Amino acid sequence: MPSLRAQLFNWYMVAKVKSEPIHLLPPEVLREGADEMAPKKPPRGVTLEAVDGVVKGEWHRAVEAAPGRTVLYLHGGGYVFGSAISHRAATFSLAREAQAEVFSLDYRLAPEHPFPAAVDDALAAYRWLLDSGRNTKGLVIGGDSAGGGLALALLLSIREKGLPMPKGVFLYSPWTDLTVSGASVLANEKSDAMFKAEYISGGVRRYVPQGDLKSPLVSPLFANHAELPPTLIFASTSEVLLDDSVRLHEKLKDAGVEAELILKDGLIHVWPIFAGRFPEAMDDVRRTAQFIRERT
């Protein structure tokens, strides 16, 4: 059973998020709301550096970072909202716990910048890291929700371009199927503390206004997963996107990819990004940090 603090946070999110038709809200409202919840300053032992050049985002560096250990983080938010700011609680904690340098990317958002803008920006950030001297032996990619799907799309692009692969990828409740065909979308609608089914299906065309929703770079669930790096996936048995993770794990294993799926009962979608709010979030940030350290 989830901790009392996790249950209280679930109830808060039901009132704050699930009660609003987020698929219909203006993007600027969603973006402001997401950033409002973020820490304003990094914790002790972590530094912050904004980047506004060829790529945009923030470096969150552990003061005692292991040389070369780098995480490229891709935030969630349905490809419509979220930012390097909104996800600081997670990326600050990942930097500290993994003793790493985390680059949290601000990719272009829909509907102003629909697919494939986010994929193009993620690939540009990866090339930028390589061009700056980062060795893939120390590089891991991570993402949550839409950012998890984007992380997979980035890996597919890396493979297609013949670039060196990172040493691993971690995914928090990844959104991998924009056809919204998973049975859990309806089966878990009542138990999910954040989303209703219509929020997911209604948000798809903000990112992909037209075109094939089964395209691998849109819905990485339907891709050929051969030769992808070791993958760590977290998902809640209570969330509507559960099957996006379960089916992905099955397909990765079938493709011969080293993959682990960690399922938790009763927790909110992408719970590790809420590090500091309840103990389970920090526990699984530490589990992610262990994965990063082991791979690099």
Short recap of the structure:
The chain has 296 residues and is an alpha/beta fold.
Features:
38% helix
Describe the structure.
Helix 3 (88-98) packs across helix 9 and helix 4 packs across helix 5 (146-161). The chain is an alpha/beta fold and 296 residues long. The two termini are 33 Å apart. 38% of the residues lie in helices and 16% in strands. The chain has helices at residues 4-18, 27-36, 88-98, 117-131, 146-161, 184-187, 197-207, 242-254, 279-295; strands at 46-52, 56-62, 70-74, 101-105, 139-144, 168-172, 231-236, 259-264. The chain has one domain (4-295): Rossmann fold (3-Layer(aba) Sandwich), CATH 3.40.50.1820. It has nine helices and eight strands. It has an eight-stranded mixed beta sheet with strand order 1-2-4-3-5-6-7-8, sandwiched between helices. A hairpin with a 3-residue loop joins strand 1 (46-52) and strand 2. The model has no long low-confidence stretch (mean pLDDT 97).
Under CATH, the homologous superfamily reads Alpha/Beta hydrolase fold, catalytic domain
Spatial order of strands in the largest sheet: 1-2-4-3-5-6-7-8
- The parts where pLDDT drops under 50 for at least 5 residues are none
Q: Under the CATH scheme, which class?
A: Alpha Beta
Number of strands: 8
Radius of gyration: 17 Å
Mean pLDDT over the residues = 97
